[in-house]
Amino acid sequence: MGDVLRFNPNLYFRTPGDLEAYQAIWPTQETRKLTIYSTSPEAEPGNVERDRALLAMRYGRSRFIRETYLNEFDALTGTDKAFYPPPPLWVEVELLPNGVIRVEARYRGQQFWKDEEIRNDADVCNLLVEFDNRGGVNLIDLTCWASDTREEMKYMQEAMTRKKRKRG
After folding, report:
1. Where are the domains positioned within the chain?
2. Mind listing the pLDDT tens digit for each residue in 103-118?
3. What are phi and psi of 96, to 5 degrees?
4. How many CA atoms lie within 13 A of 137 on its CB side?
5. Mean of the pLDDT values across residues 48-58?
6. Residue 27 pLDDT more than 70?
7. Cα–Cα distance measured from residue 142 to residue 53, given in angstroms and rounded to the nearest whole number
8. Helix, strand, or coil (residue 27)
């Protein structure tokens, strides 16, 4: 589970741009990194220390779920004000027996669980199974984001066309 992330089989793409939007916001094995280890060059020292501190606060646990840090896994984390930010990307953080921290992309969409319900590693595993059952993405969030982005791009193209006509 988690080695190869697949596209959700229930996705319906109205336009070819919808598939491109989905691919842009969901890191896949072909397009982006899926996992960061605390020993890898992609690992930000500040992120690793935050994760170690969060693990220390969860006594007896070796894993938890959190939202990604800014630009941790993908470039579309709300930094470009021209586009709507994509739905949040959630990751599993795990402390491996050798002391290495593993952070893996797991789910894209609004949070549907309550943090207080995730009390131990078994609860995290059950949540990971639910992520997998949902195909790794919230379809409503994805559809709304793709639609908003499509409308924003259409507006920007119309504005550029008007600007060119004024100059011309």
Report:
1. 16-167
2. 988 888 899 999 999 9
3. -80, 160
4. 25
5. 91
6. no
7. 32
8. coil
Residues 6+ apart with CB under 8 A from 84: 145, 148, 149, 152
Find all residues with CB under 8 Å of 29, minimum gap 6, and list them.
4, 5
- Tokens 């899926």 belong to 34
Interaxial angle between packed helices 139-167 and 16-25, expressed in degrees from 0 to 180 and rounded to the nearest 10: 110
Q: How many CB atoms lie within 10 A of CB 124?
A: 21
Higher pLDDT, 18 or 102: 102
Place of tokens 């379809």: 139
Total length of the chain: 168
The token duo for 116 is 């207080």
Rounded to two decimals, the pTM is 0.70
Q: Which residues pair with 90 in a beta bridge?
A: 67, 107
The tokens for 156 are 């920007």
| Structure token digits, residue 98 | 């050798």
The winner for highest mean pLDDT among 67-71, 92-96, 135-139 is 92-96
Q: How many CB atoms lie within 10 A of CB 66?
A: 14
User: Rounded CA gap, 143 and 148, in Å?
Assistant: 9
